[in-house]
């Protein structure tokens, strides 16, 4: 069985690479994969997954986290009934539990841990949820997503609290957020088609469709600008969130150094697509 698997693996790679096309850098490898998709050597799903592997190596936790203002929390002094109401209303599986404010995370509550108490099968010590909390995992915004995935796997937890350089809570990240970088969201009939290129000129020709995971340096190089000097972020999605001071909604607009940005596609975790209209002098 191993030999068959190795042969299939070798056959797959040989379809993509030859001695003439063997890449010597990541940029060349990404180009080969795009060409393989265009030539129908691999399908679009495979191309997107391979691209996701590149993205997971360069993105930071701050690029994929759920921002603080979107987090549903439960207070540490909540009763079983109060906590159960929040769980039933929001239908999440894990909740950060706070003390005096959202910057004081004292634990994580798993919805499944509430069941025996909510059903009356067990009695809670002191009447509050404090005794059934799990210890919170704290990670910095700058942590790389690939490193976060390894930590999730090694420690068998599914949620981490993200803090900024001052120790304040800036968001939370789940294993789902990390895996979606590779496999993508589950599409429905309302989702728009995403081109594998990070920056694509629109049909009208005056604006560009830009992927949220586009590195700021790549954006700077393409448009001959200096956005990398504006903030310590890695991606365009991170830059727009930083400049707005909050997580942007679909349809929201902002102007940065003469560039007009409009959010085309986003969910409650991150910005996927933006429409960017550059100043006339910088149009490609």
Automatic annotation (TrEMBL):
The keyword Repeat applies. The keyword Magnesium applies. GO terms for cellular component: plasma membrane. Residues 1-28 are annotated as: Disordered. Residues 65-126, 132-189 form the CBS domain. Keywords: CBS domain, Cobalt, Magnesium, Repeat, Transport. Residues 1-10 have a biased composition (Basic and acidic residues). One of its GO terms (molecular function) is flavin adenine dinucleotide binding. Plays a role in the transport of magnesium and cobalt ions. PANTHER family: HEMOLYSIN-RELATED (PTHR22777), MAGNESIUM AND COBALT EFFLUX PROTEIN CORC (PTHR22777:SF27). Belongs to the UPF0053 family. This is Magnesium and cobalt efflux protein CorC. It comes from Succinivibrio dextrinosolvens DSM 3072.
């Amino acid at each position: 069985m191993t030999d068959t698997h190795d042969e299939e693996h070798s056959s797959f790679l040989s379809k993509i690479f030859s001695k003439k096309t063997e890449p010597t850098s990541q940029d060349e490898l990404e180009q080969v994969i795009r060409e393989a998709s265009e030539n129908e050597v691999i399908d679009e799903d495979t191309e997107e997954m391979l691209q996701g592997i590149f993205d997971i190596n360069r993105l930071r936790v701050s690029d994929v986290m759920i921002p603080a203002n979107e987090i549903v929390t439960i207070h540490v002094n909540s009763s079983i009934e109060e906590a159960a109401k929040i769980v039933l209303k929001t239908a999440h599986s894990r909740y950060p539990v706070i003390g005096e404010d959202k910057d004081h995370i004292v634990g994580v509550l798993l919805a499944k841990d509430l069941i025996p108490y909510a059903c009356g099968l067990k009695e809670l010590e002191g009447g509050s949820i404090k005794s059934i909390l799990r210890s919170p995992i704290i990670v910095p915004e700058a942590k790389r997503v690939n490193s976060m995935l390894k930590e999730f796997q090694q420690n068998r937890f599914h949620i981490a609290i993200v803090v900024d350089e001052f120790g304040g809570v800036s968001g939370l990240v789940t294993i789902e957020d990390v895996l979606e970088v590779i496999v993508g969201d589950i599409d429905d009939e309302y989702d728009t088609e995403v081109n594998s290129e990070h920056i694509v000129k629109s049909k009208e020709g005056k604006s560009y469709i830009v992927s949220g995971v586009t590195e700021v340096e790549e954006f700077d190089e393409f448009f001959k600008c200096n956005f990398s000097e504006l903030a310590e972020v890695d991606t365009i999605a991170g830059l727009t969130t930083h400049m707005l001071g909050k997580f942007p909604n679909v349809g929201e607009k902002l102007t940065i150094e003469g560039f007009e940005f409009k959010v085309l596609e986003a969910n409650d975790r991150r910005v996927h697509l933006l429409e960017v209209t550059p100043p006339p002098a910088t149009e490609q």
